[in-house]
Amino acid sequence: xxxxxxxxxxxxxxxxxxxxxxxxxxxxxxxxxxxxxxxxxxxxxxxxxxxxxxxxxxxxxxxxxxxxxxxxxxxxxxxxxxxxxxxxxxxxxxxxxxxxxxx
Length: 103
Known about the structure:
Number of helices: 5
Shape: flat
Number of strands: 0
Distance between the termini: 27 Å
Helix content: over 70%
Order of helices and strands: HHHHH
Radius of gyration: 21 Å
Strand content: under 5%
């Protein structure tokens, strides 16, 4: 799908859904305790609302960052396995090596 087609589809399908969701968040903001999990989630979402909607502005922007997360997952999971690399210089060399590979 071209970026322009993606933009138009998001404008048509997603914008109304997000507008409705924003209304729901605003309505429930004062009805939920600040310390509750749902209250925290509502406040977090509202405080990041503009950033969460940036992908609607341009069809070239992906809705998620799954490609990046999948690329770095092996390194993140492996960190525990590489915690003890024998020596500080070995750990430094390993960190440089794996950073180069993942980037």
